[in-house]
Design a protein that fits this description.
The chain has 288 residues and is of the alpha/beta class. It has twelve helices and seven strands. A five-stranded parallel beta sheet has the order 3-2-1-4-5, sandwiched between helices. It has a two-stranded antiparallel sheet with strand order 6-7. Bound molecules: iron/sulfur cluster and zinc ion (ZN). Iron/sulfur cluster binds next to α6.
Length: 288
C-alpha cells in the first residue's frame, strides 16, 4: 500500500475509533455537518459520508466579502459532487446585517468585541435553530486536536475552569431537548494531518485564514504550542489527555451551579434571562 493510501486509511480509522469510543454518532442518527468550506469541515463531511453515515451539510454565511463567497462556492460544488444535501443560512437574511456590520454597530455603542466572538455566538445560535428544524440528531463540527488544545490553554491561562468543563469530543453540560448535541469526530486528529488529508484528496478548499480572525490571544497560544511541539511532539495530545482525565469531574462541579432558562425574548435555551444572541442583536437594532 502506498504511504498516501496508508495515511488516508489511518486518518479515517482514527475518526471511526473516536466516534466509537465516545459514542458520538449512532448509525440511525441524522447528522448535520456544520461546514465552512475550509479543510476541517470538508474533511469530516467527506469521511462521515464515506463511512456510511446519514449526513447533510449546513453552512452559515457570515458575509465576509470574497472570503465567504469563495468558500460558499467551493462547498456547494463539493456537496453537489459528493451527493450531499446542503442547507445555507445567511447572517444577512437572519439578522439583517453582515458580520462586519454587526461588529461595527456593537463598537459604535461602546463595546469592543472580537469578530470571532460575535461570529461564534450568532453562528451557533443559527446552527442550533436550523438543525432542530431539520430534525437532526447531531451536529458535527470540524474541531481538531489543535483547536481543542488551544482552547484548553486559553481557558487555563485565563483561569476559566468552567469553560474547560464545556470542552471534550461531546461537549455540553446540561442536556436540553432544544439543544441539538454537537460532536467533534476530528478530536484526536491534528491540524497538520487534516490539511495533509485534504490536499491528498484534492478538496476544493482555501487554506488561508479568515480575514476576520484577529484574535491575538489565540494566535499567541497557537504559535506557542506549535513552537513547543517541535521539541515535545506529544504536547497537544498530552493536553487533551489531561483534559479528558478531568472532564467528568469538572462537569459535575459546574452542573451544581448551572441552570438552563428559556430566553425571555426568543425562548431559546439560555444560561441568562436574555440569551447572548438577543443581547448582541439588541445593539444592532435600529431605534424605532
Ligand atoms: S475565523 Fe472568526 S470571524 Fe472568521 S468565520 Fe471563523 S469565527 Fe467567524
Ligand atoms: Zn434570545
Amino acid at each position: 500500500m502506498s504511504s498516501e493510501k496508508e495515511f488516508v486509511r489511518k486518518l479515517e480509522n482514527k475518526v471511526k475509533d473516536t466516534i466509537k469510543k465516545f459514542k458520538l454518532i449512532s448509525p440511525k442518527d441524522k447528522v448535520l455537518v456544520a461546514v465552512s468550506g475550509g479543510k476541517d469541515s470538508t474533511t469530516i463531511l467527506y469521511v462521515l459520508k464515506k463511512l456510511g453515515y446519514n449526513v447533510e451539510a449546513i453552512t452559515v454565511d457570515a458575509v465576509i466579502g470574497t472570503y465567504t463567497k469563495e468558500n460558499l462556492k467551493n462547498i456547494k460544488n463539493f456537496c453537489k459532487q459528493n451527493n450531499v444535501k446542503i442547507h445555507i443560512v445567511s447572517f444577512k437574511k437572519a439578522y439583517g446585517y453582515s458580520l462586519n456590520e454587526i461588529v461595527s454597530l456593537i463598537k459604535s455603542k461602546g463595546w469592543n468585541l472580537l469578530p470571532c466572538t460575535v461570529c461564534g455566538i450568532l453562528r451557533r445560535y443559527l446552527i442550533n435553530l436550523y438543525s432542530r428544524k431539520l430534525k437532526a440528531d447531531k451536529v458535527v463540527t470540524g474541531h481538531n486536536l489543535d483547536d481543542e488544545a488551544q482552547a484548553f490553554m486559553m481557558n487555563l491561562l485565563k483561569n476559566k475552569k468552567e469553560m474547560n468543563a464545556r470542552l471534550g469530543p461531546y461537549p455540553g453540560i446540561i442536556r436540553d431537548p432544544k439543544f441539538v448535541p454537537r460532536v467533534k469526530p476530528l478530536y484526536f486528529t491534528s491540524e497538520k494531518d487534516v490539511e495533509k488529508y485534504s490536499r491528498i484528496m484534492d478538496f476544493p478548499v482555501k487554506y488561508g485564514r479568515c480575514p476576520c480572525a484577529v484574535d491575538a490571544y489565540r494566535n499567541y497560544i497557537r504559535n506557542m504550542l506549535n513552537e513547543l511541539e517541535k521539541d515535545y511532539p506529544d504536547i497537544k495530545q498530552n493536553i487533551v489527555k489531561y483534559l479528558l482525565k478531568n472532564l467528568s469531574k469538572w462537569k459535575k462541579e459546574i452542573k451544581l451551579t448551572e441552570k438552563l432558562l428559556a430566553c425571555k425574548k426568543c425562548k431559546e435555551p439560555s444560561r441568562s434571562e436574555i440569551c447572548r444572541t438577543c443581547q448582541l442583536l439588541n445593539f444592532v437594532k435600529k431605534p424605532s
